[in-house]
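Q: Sequence in, structure out?
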Amino acid sequence: MKKLLFVGLTFLSLHVFSQRKFDPNSDHENFFRIGAKAGVNINRINGESYNSGFNYNYLLGAFMQFNFSKRFGFQPEINFVQSTAEFSNDASTVYDDLFSDGSQRKAKLDYLKIPLLLNINVGPSKRVKLQVGSQVGGLLKQSIDSLKTGQNLFKKGDWSAVGGLWIQLPFINFGARYEIGLSNLNDIDNSEKWKSQAFTIFVGFTL
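A: Exactly. Output:
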């Protein structure tokens, strides 16, 4: 009998907690929160010398949230992001000479990216946030297969516009974003414009 009473009280407590936890009218956000996330970076570089397909890499990051009102907030982040790109077989002679006819022309780029985002709460709940803003990226390292020269191909900085959706549960967060590069990454010459493009999908925790 005691066991049945204990089980009944347990289920009742869980039911009451779940109703309070997921009621949109009882949502509460602290002014300041911090967290971390990890995810997939689906990226490519647009340019005449590059393959058009996307590449799959990873990202790791940390963030802060400043919730100024029921509708708006500010979220700065710092993310370590790996990107890759591959030259096509139609590269011009100038770029082809850099590789000395190397059979593999894949580039691996390690970035430190800092997005500055405006959070806009969607609907009565504060769980769903529309995110828009800008992002600056600093190139930490570039590695190119079969490159026969010490010349850098990519510029050190990259500016991007960012938009996405963030789902903020009490502890877990997840979401997706689209990033479009605004800077020309070509550090060889001005004959081609190389610009980044990426989709990111991530999950993390918030304290």
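The two ends are 40 Å apart (CA to CA).
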